[in-house]
Design a protein that fits this description.
This protein is mainly beta. The protein is built from two helices and eight strands. It has one domain: Phosphoribosyl-AMP cyclohydrolase (Ubiquitin-like (UB roll), Roll). It is globular.
Length: about 140
Amino acid sequence: MTDLSFAPRGDKHELEEGARLAPKFDRDGLIVCITTEIHTGDILMVAYMNEEALRLSIETGVAHYYSRSRQSLWRKGDTSGQVQTIVEMRTDCDQDAILLKVEAGGDGKACHTGRRSCFYRKVALGPVGGALTITE
């Protein structure tokens, strides 16, 4: 492992146009991460990373996250076999969100419910707003 460190957060122009990763972690030390499947573009999951999870993801090329409920670091696939190999990592304009494009290992089911995606329910809009329908 290297001693990867992140750049200090500079001015707005440097954050938006610069070539240095300077992630903005929230007050709990976390940054949101959206994970998509590289071949289809489907959103698989949304999770959080702390500094260590982001560093390990960059260094190893395997998705690491931080579990808010367990208060611990986890490498996706350690218990499920659904290892996510990172093909591409991006950050948004002000560097307060991460996007991973991954190849999903195992049978490709990213959700702990056994589904391919955590986004398997559709929310009804309009007069029946709020009703959920399972779409997968």
